[in-house]
Design brief:
Layout lengths: L10 E5 L5 E5 L4 H10 L6 E5 L5 H12 L3 E6 L2 E5 L7 E2 L1 H6 L7 H8 L1 E5 L12 H9 L3 E5 L2 E5 L7 E3 L5 H12 L4 E5 L5 H12 L3 E3 L5 E5 L8 E3 L4 H13 L3 E5 L7 H10 L2 E4 L3 E5 L9 E2 L11 H8 L5 E5 L8 H8 L3 E5 L2 E5 L8 E3 L3 H13 L3 E5 L2 H4 L5 H7 L3 E5 L1
Parallel strand pairs: 2-15, 3-14, 6-7, 10-11, 18-19, 22-23
Antiparallel strand pairs: 1-23, 1-24, 3-5, 4-5, 7-9, 8-9, 11-13, 12-13, 15-17, 16-17, 19-21, 20-21
Bound molecules: uridine-diphosphate-N-acetylglucosamine (UD1).
Length: about 425
């Protein structure tokens, strides 16, 4: 069973100015769930997942995996049983890859399992060019014959073989793709300058439980000894650090007091330090964080970097917060060249932001005013919701289908904390 699609024309109506208070639960991490689901292609049998977030990207990945010949046995709440016994199709079409770039995660697993893949090139997206050259070069070094034709990557190989590969740029999806491919390759693969994101470490750990031989997760170098086959996956997806971070900022921007449960504080530590620097109180337990704010805070600078640096996926939300800070904040985006789409919308609410290439200079203002707003990508949409919560008057945010890609029931979670937000179908 697939999740019901939320309507594409849905809008959020937000009446700003309410302090958020209370507790909420974080859902499973979308960016951990998607690679794990793609990794199921490497196995034959029924894969079991729990902690799967009910968001649109998960739906899209499931759709793609079913299209490849897999079978959804059961999908209920956060539990998914997925049978990969009959995976026999090797095509990921443009329709699927263009709506969700993570669809390209099937490339490595398809080559490893079927020796063939036809995966659409994702093309540019709202936040930057985002090529796949690093994935392709790595797979070629593993012996795959790759050609690009009519917008598709065609790959063919008898059996992938181990190699030594250095990533020129740290790439999360690139690391995941080559890691998955290497688990079933012949011999040893050494991947250098890899991503150290918790989602990559988790992928490696779970694949090891399935019989893979991976060492070095969480460091710059992964060493993978290829094996002949992997057992089906049985895993529980950990909480979403970006969702947690978004609600931490929601509490901060509304002068709130919110306890965020089912969260791993270690994974949001960089944000915690920045919030404390801005003047917020952040209390941590093993599995929760509480952010207490009196609504007055200072401007602080951030620079997005690969984990454990400040996450690019929280940059837009942090910028929304900084629009209301006392003083100036300099925001440097080092991961993507065009990830400031939200700045123009925030300016329409009265924010004072100047863009210079990959740098945003934000001078805090006393108030934002509600406005009709347009969501442009997943995290930019979240930043507009946060700004609207703190603004004076009503905001109408359209194209919230972007937000449905990655946040489970955001309007309900915020409403229970005291926000005046509703979805208009
Ligand atoms: C990145 C983020 C991740 C975030 C995701 C979605 C980092 C290191 N990664 O992951 O936290 O969840 O975006 O917002 O912060 N690149 C190439 N060639 C390639 C692949 C990537 O040049 O083949 C470049 C990209 O243009 C970009 C950087 O590497 O500058 C990372 O890009 P990409 O792999 O697309 O992002 P993800 O690793 O998916």
């Amino acid at each position: 069973m697939c999740l019901p699609e939320k309507k594409i024309m849905d809008k959020f109506i937000v009446e700003g100015g309410n302090r958020l208070e209370g507790e909420l639960e974080i859902s499973g991490a979308k960016n951990a769930a998607l690679p794990m689901m793609a990794a199921s292609i490497l196995t034959t049998g029924v894969n079991k997942f729990s902690g799967i977030p009910q968001v649109r990207d998960v739906n899209t990945m499931l759709h793609l995996l079913n299209h490849l010949g897999g079978r959804t046995e059961d999908f209920n709440e956060d539990r998914l049983l997925f049978d990969t016994t009959h995976i026999n199709n090797y095509e990921a079409s443009y329709d699927l890859v263009s709506t969700m770039r993570a669809s390209c995660l099937v490339l490595g697993p398809l080559l490893a399992r079927l020796g063939r893949a036809k995966v659409s090139l994702p093309g540019g997206c709202a936040i930057g060019a985002r090529p796949l050259d690093l994935h392709i070069r790595g797979l070629e070094l593993m012996g795959a014959k790759i050609r690009l034709e009519q917008g598709y990557i065609y790959g063919e190989v008898k059996r992938l073989r181990g190699t030594r590969y250095y990533f020129d740029t740290v790439s999360v999806t690139g690391t995941a793709n080559l890691l998955m491919a290497a688990t079933l390759a012949e011999g040893e693969t050494i991947l250098e300058n890899v991503a150290k994101e918790p989602e990559v470490v988790f992928l490696a750990d779970v694949l090891n439980q399935c019989g893979a031989k991976i060492k070095g997760q969480g460091t710059d170098t992964l060493v993978i000894q290829g094996v002949q086959s992997l057992e089906p996956i049985d895993c529980h997806i950990f909480p979403d650090r970006i969702e947690a971070g978004t609600y931490m900022i929601a509490s901060a921007i509304t002068g709130g007091n919110v306890k965020i449960n089912n969260c791993l504080p270690r994974q949001v530590e960089t944000l915690t330090l920045k919030l404390r620097q801005a003047g917020m109180i952040v209390e941590e337990t093993e599995t929760s964080v509480r952010v207490i704010s009196d609504g007055s805070f200072n401007g602080v600078n951030i620079k997005t970097q690969p984990y454990p640096g400040f996450a690019t996926d929280l940059q837009a939300q942090f910028m929304a917060l900084m629009t209301l800070a006392q003083g100036q904040s300099i925001i440097l985006e080092t991961i993507f060249e065009n990830r400031f789409m939200h700045a123009a919308e925030l300016k329409r609410m009265g924010a004072d932001i100047t863009l210079q290439g990959r740098t945003a200079i934000v001078n805090g203002v006393k108030r934002l005013s509600g406005a009709p707003l347009m969501a442009t990508d997943l995290r930019a949409s979240a930043s507009l919701v946060l700004a609207a919560l703190a603004a004076e008057g009503e905001s109408v945010i359209s194209r919230v289908y972007h937000i449905d890609r990655g946040y489970f029931n955001i309007e309900e979670k915020l409403y229970r904390l005291g926000a005046k937000i509703r979805r208009k179908k």
